[in-house]
Amino acid sequence: MKLILATLTAAMTLGALPAQAQDASVAFNASLTSDYRYRGISQTRLKPALQGGLDYAHPSGFYVGAWGSTIKWVKDVGGDAKVEVDLYGGYKTEISKGVNLDIGVLTYIYPSNKLATSANTTEIYGALSYGPFTAKYSHAVTDTFGNPDSKNSWYADLSASFEVMDGWMLAPHVGYQRIDGPLRGQASYTDYSLALSKDFSGLVPSIALVGTDADKGFYTVKDKFLGKNGLVVSVKYNF
């Protein structure tokens, strides 16, 4: 977290220098979704969420950002956090013709979560993109989302984005979340999704079919299976 905050401060300082940042960009977004699914698991007990974020990109390829969402899962498992705040920073570059590399660090913060094993999680990640395809690997350098002794858990995923008609984008995705530690057998799972979206001058509606093969007993809270197959409808505005 300290590393990300330092990176954010440094980037904002660069942004104050016209000669270096004249081509830099700052973008904001806000969204409403019928269910906040992260890696296939509902973070809101299958209920709606409000979300928003900001991103700063420097012409050199370095970027930082922050994003937040309302959540329910921490309180559902005995903690005391109603929001998630993500801070991240990284570097993007083309390493070969048409092949792009993205590396960085991401910290998920659940303020005052008060769980026995903190829900706060930091991951380092790397992604390679070619054409419409992206392969990404994320590795936890802390315990992972409140699971005890789960340092070195990881998530690997493959995704793509295709234009199907008149600007509508179809995005298939499949990923595997491995949770190390004593809960590995119950907590690890595969997730998958298929999303359709379109950008109407910054307003982006989307609909996604989302599901997992997660352990129903482990991922059920208050009689709600958080990894069930479902349809998620969202609207996002980029400005």
What this model shows, in words?
This protein has 239 residues and is mainly beta. Helices cover 11% and strands 54% of the residues. It is built from 4 helices and 17 strands. Strand 2 and strand 3 form a beta hairpin. The relative contact order is 0.15.
Quick synopsis:
With 239 residues, the protein is mostly beta strands. Helices cover 11% and strands 54% of the residues. It is built from four helices and 17 strands.
Question: What characteristics describe this protein?
Answer:
about 240 residues, mainly beta, two-stranded antiparallel sheet, 4 helices, 17 strands, about 10% helix, disordered N terminus
Shape: globular
| Class per helix and strand makeup | mainly beta
How do the helices and strands follow one another from N- to C-terminus? HHEEEEEHEEEEEEEHEEEEE
Largest sheet composition: 12 strands, antiparallel, barrel
Low-confidence stretches: 1-21
Helix content: 10-25%
How far the N terminus sits from the C terminus, by CA atoms, comes to: 27 Å
Number of contiguous helices: 4
Strand order of the largest sheet: 1-4-5-6-7-8-9-10-12-13-14-17
Beta-strand percent range: over 45%
Mean pLDDT, all residues: 92
Q: What Rg, in angstroms, do the CA atoms define?
A: 18 Å
Counting DSSP E segments of at least 2 residues, the number of strands comes to 17
Could you outline the blueprint of secondary structure elements for this entry?
Elements lengths: L1 H14 L2 H4 L3 E9 L3 E2 L2 E2 L6 E9 L4 E9 L2 H4 L6 E14 L2 E11 L11 E10 L2 E8 L13 E7 L1 E4 L2 E11 L5 H4 L1 E9 L5 E10 L7 E2 L2 E2 L4 E9 L1
Antiparallel strand pairs: 1-4, 1-17, 2-3, 4-5, 5-6, 6-7, 7-8, 8-9, 9-10, 10-12, 11-12, 12-13, 13-14, 14-17, 15-16
